[in-house]
Amino acid sequence: MAPKKNSAKRPQPSTPKPSAPARIVKVQSSDGHILQADVRALLLSSTLAATIKGYDDENKPLEKLEVNNVVGFTLKLVLEWCEKHKEDDPAIAQAEKDKKNIFIPSWDRHFLTKLPMGNLFDLITAAYHLDITGLINYGCKTVANSAKGKSTEEMRELFGIPEPWEQPSTSTATWDD
Amino acid sequence: MKLSKFPYLVQQEVLSNMASSHLFLLSFVSKNMKALIKSSQVARFKNVIHIKYNCMETNQPDVEVFYRDAWDPIVKIAEEGTRTDGFQLTVSGKLIDFRIFYLILWSSKMIQMILKKLISGYRFMYGPFPEEKMSKMFGRDARADHIKFSPESEFYQAESMKVDQYEHTIPAVLQHFQGRQAFIRCRYCKISDLIGFVNEWKTGKGFQRLEYLEIRIRSFDEGLPQNEILDGIGAKYIAQRNHHQRMFCRKFTLIIPILNRIQTESSATHTSLEKQMVMWRLFGFLGKLYGLEYGTKQSSSF
Questions:
Q1: ipTM
Q2: Which of A85, B59, B162, B177 could be joined to B144 by an S-S link, Cβ 3.0–4.6 Å?
């Protein structure tokens, strides 16, 4: 059968897990903002999941998680996304990443596209630091989609790539020549 | 947003989610962006099965890349249209009008300049492009029916080539081919050229690496001149009962269907090394098996 033009369809989620009672913990951003979140939402972050597991293994009370590399505004966005997806099967996000076959659901599309590019950038970077596969998938796909229909000059502006004559002539120049 | 500030894995993820055409266009933005695309998309490029250069029936050539389970258009060259959603890009010091996925062209000189730039980017991403010298890829008047590859073109160095042509004659595209397999479908075929090609091939004067040739002629207005072809290439009918007595090796296949009589089976096409007899199955001739004698022994391991 002839191959088809690149397109993506979202894998079907598995049967939803029965809801467990919410376990709320405090999360502190790098600039001191304290937010509250359901632990199930935080478990979407592999980084935070490891920390939470450490507390649980040692039977320590988990009162507050510190996220030192994400500012409050961005952390709020992260937690909003995680709260929305806390029932998701993490295997779906991983499968999508592995297959490069990412379909952005309508809620996520609206959530991500309404953000200014700068905020989206911060959100993806935070997702990367916190290792949230699904958010990285959707964020990167959103950025990639934003290049559709753009001219080279618009792409240059979109991705913050300076004109060649704006580049320093020293050896410390970045890849944005 | 500065893409360069993203962690490398995020940059890679973003680029991996872009269509080939967008990557292709993005590669023009900066040299280092081009380098990033190349280094971060190794897996994508390794997944390429083949690349299609479509120059048929239209003066709007296009290039598409086929992956294992999908395909992506890369670029299409078109005449100037009425659309106004274009943008300008400096190519070789000249300002050229572009349109997303379309290049608006006015002259052959501009075509050559644009293609030179495009192919430079293309080579960076996908490896050799089938034409080094752009001025030879397109004729001077830039019409599609004058598209031709130079004899030195890397196009001819591909191991396998599949060509779908409307009006061009078969030998024209095979003349400089150095690969092992060629699949050609055309609507018209100049019989004298075909005979000349086959004779050159079977006598070992040319196309010595060619091991498999499949030609499908989609239609022939006055019927396929079977006897002319058979006589011209020196084919001799081989009785069916003799087939099993030979140590056959798969070698050459020539499929010349008459109208809709197309068959794809090629297993009965072999070469007997001992007898130096090339066996041809000319499916257009009711599937009969023919032999072509030639003088030099084949060194092929087939």
A1: 0.78
A2: B59
